[in-house]
Amino acid sequence: MNWNGLGDIRVLIADDDAFNRQLIVALLAKVPNIKVIEASDGLEALKILKQERISMLLLDYHMPRMNGDELLREIKEDMRLSKMPVAIITTDESEMRHLYELGADDFILKPFDFQELRRCIYRHVQKIGDNTICRVSL
């Protein structure tokens, strides 16, 4: 993977579980041109999305205040955000079909590992709109 050819990559992690955010931050710190921004719920993530340029969103499905379903709807209805790739972070495969219909680009199934997480982000940042499942497993 040629990360340098992609330039600066800004990944937003929206997850109410601080441990999950810290784990992803630690894994992505190994890729020098990825900057990770954290949000603890959907409302905070939406505020960040409207203020900053984000390359990709890693979105937890179950969150307080605004869950992944609600945030995904907001993103896909906003012309400025609708093309940004969104990967749903979940342990619940039963929601996949519904979330694909709402516009999710991918799924990251917990537990996950560094190599699969990297491949998922690289694929979507390189080519927006790839609707394949990113099975990230430990």
Describe this structure in words.
The protein has helices at residues 18-28, 42-51, 68-77, 96-102, 114-126; strands at 9-14, 34-39, 56-60, 86-90, 106-109. With 138 residues, it is of the alpha/beta class. The protein has a single domain, classed as 3-Layer(aba) Sandwich (Rossmann fold), CATH 3.40.50. Strands 2-1-3-4-5 form a five-stranded parallel β-sheet, with helices on both faces. Helix 2 runs parallel beside helix 3. It is globular, with a radius of gyration of 13 Å.
Any guess at the CATH architecture?
3-Layer(aba) Sandwich
The chain-level mean pLDDT equals 85
User: Mind telling me the CATH class?
Assistant: Alpha Beta
Number of strands: 5
What is the SS-derived class? alpha/beta
Number of helices: 5
The gyration radius over C-alpha positions equals: 13 Å
Level of helix content?
25-40%
Order of helices and strands: EHEHEHEHEH
**Tally of structural domains:** 1
Largest sheet: 5 strands, parallel
Strand order of the largest sheet: 2-1-3-4-5
- N-C termini distance: 21 Å
CATH superfamily: Response regulator
Shape: globular
Describe the secondary-structure layout.
Elements: E1 9-14, H1 18-28, E2 34-39, H2 42-51, E3 56-60, H3 68-77, E4 86-90, H4 96-102, E5 106-109, H5 114-126
Parallel strand pairs: 1-2, 1-3, 3-4, 4-5
Summarize the structure.
This protein has 138 residues and is α/β, with parallel strands linked by helices. It is built from five helices and five strands; from the N terminus they run βαβαβαβαβα.
Describe the structure using short key phrases.
single chain, 138 residues, alpha/beta, Rossmann fold, five-stranded parallel β-sheet, 5 strands, 37% helix, globular, disordered C terminus
